[in-house]
From TrEMBL:
It comes from Probosciger aterrimus (Palm cockatoo). GO terms for cellular component: mitochondrial matrix; mitochondrial outer membrane. InterPro entries: ADH-like_N, ER, GroES-like_sf, NAD(P)-bd_dom_sf, RTN4IP1, YIM1/Zinc_Alcohol_DH_Fams. The lineage of its organism: Eukaryota, Metazoa, Chordata, Craniata, Vertebrata. PANTHER family: ALCOHOL DEHYDROGENASE RELATED, RETICULON-4-INTERACTING PROTEIN 1, MITOCHONDRIAL. One of its GO terms (biological process) is ubiquinone biosynthetic process. Residues 39-385 form the Enoyl reductase (ER) domain. This is NAD(P)H oxidoreductase RTN4IP1, mitochondrial. GO terms for molecular function: nucleotide binding; oxidoreductase activity.
């Protein structure tokens, strides 16, 4: 349980056992932004009567939300994307009396303060400043309070404000999943390796995700090539890219072929990328192509749970074998909520190796404007919500 102490090799006495606490003030409802149906921005509704979160399991904590941020998954979920898969995860045994996920609160990122702890929580206590990324099947963070599992939560980086910290967890963990958990790169094996990051740098979450990956592998000593548009090249170089390729200036594949072969390619664009990736990766040397563009959720929405999972399995299996026969590993990556991974990311943030990139901060009353900003697709970083703002 004492994650930080174990990693640092420091012997610490565990805090005294804490039972379930109740709020110092009786509270059954809270302010929140919710949706009651899927659709466009007009489905967003502000309420002061959202049910206050309860600790159902002994490893859970309730967090008072100071800041949250938006990701494209919030736009997608607002429109109903992934409803089949997420509802199955929410209630796999169909035990709920009401067969609906509404009212549904969006928002995945949170930075705030622990208010209550379950009986099994020994790593946190009320008053701790924490950050987390809440899985998409749980109620989100565009509320005054949110409940999370203790293993999804981490201490907030000391050098960041809550507003800055809220911009990082979801994209940071997605990057960590793609690079470390799936791609197999880490501090001990990344030095000297050549990596290529392919993404639409400079736009909203995709910019933030790609930038986090670049900063992460650069912090571990890799040689980084960023594929982006010309107007994002300055930012990419500032964040540590050794090479910047403008995909609009000519044939991208031919430009990449002029460079040494890559050990690792990360793609969050899809399309033709995986076709030319085979030609620029080192064959039979453990080189890996990782993509976040997967049909898993779309297949389940379109075909249903069973057929969707079957179709997804066939697709990933055939692509894995196809690439393996040519000497390259093919992988899909997904967001994974993880407090221990956020511990590692927090250390990189506090050491200055990863920095938040924020485009605009909105007050809690301006959540629909924040969604419009994200939907416009012209931001240079994350869109953050200051939840405790009085505006």
């Amino acid at each position: 349980a004492l994650r930080g102490a174990a990693r640092a090799g420091v012997q610490q006495r565990p805090p005294p056992f804490r039972g379930l606490r109740t709020s110092p003030r009786t509270q059954s409802v809270m302010p929140s932004w919710v949706i009651d149906r899927y659709g466009r921005n007009d489905v967003l509704r502000f309420t002061r009567n959202m049910v206050f979160p309860i600790i159902h399991f002994p490893n859970e904590v309730i967090i008072k939300v100071h800041a949250a941020s938006l990701n494209p998954i919030d736009l997608s979920m607002r429109s109903g994307y992934g409803a089949t898969a997420l509802n199955m995860k929410r209630d796999p045994l169909k035990l709920k009396s009401e067969d609906t996920e509404f009212p549904l609160t969006l928002g995945r990122d949170v930075s705030g303060v622990v208010m209550e702890c379950g009986m099994a929580v020994s790593y946190f206590k009320p008053g701790d400043e924490v950050w987390a990324a809440i899985p998409p099947w749980k109620q989100g963070t565009l509320s005054e309070f949110v409940v999370a599992s203790g293993n999804e939560v981490s201490f907030k980086p000391k050098c960041l404000s809550h507003t800055e910290a809220a911009s990082l967890p979801y994209v940071g963990l997605t990057a960590w999943s793609a690079v470390n958990q799936v791609g197999g790169l880490n501090e001990s094996n990344c030095s000297g390796k050549s990596s290529c990051m392919r993404g639409p740098f400079g736009t909203d979450w995709f910019s933030s995700f790609s930038e986090r990956n670049e900063q992460l592998v650069k912090a571990w000593g890799a040689h980084v090539t960023a594929v982006c548009s010309h107007d994002a090249s300055t930012l990419m170089k500032k964040l540590g890219a050794d090479e910047v390729i403008d995909y609009k200036s000519g044939n991208l594949e031919e430009q990449l072929k002029t460079l040494p072969l890559f050990d690792f390619i990360l793609d969050n664009v899809g399309g033709s990328t995986e076709k030319w990736a085979l030609d620029v990766l080192k064959k039979w040397s453990g080189a890996t192509y990782v993509t976040l563009v997967t049909p898993f959720v779309i297949n389940m929405d379109r075909l249903g749970v069973a057929d969707g999972m079957l179709q997804t399995g066939v697709t990933v299996g055939s692509k894995t074998v196809k690439h393996l026969l040519k000497g390259v590993h093919y992988r899909w990556a997904f967001f994974m909520a993880s407090g221990p991974s956020l511990d590692e990311i927090a250390e990189l943030v506090d050491s200055g190796k990863i920095q938040p990139v924020i485009d605009e901060v909105f007050s809690f009353s301006e959540v629909p404007k924040a969604f419009q900003k994200l939907e416009g697709g012209h931001a240079r970083g994350k869109t953050v919500i200051n939840v405790i703002s009085k505006k």
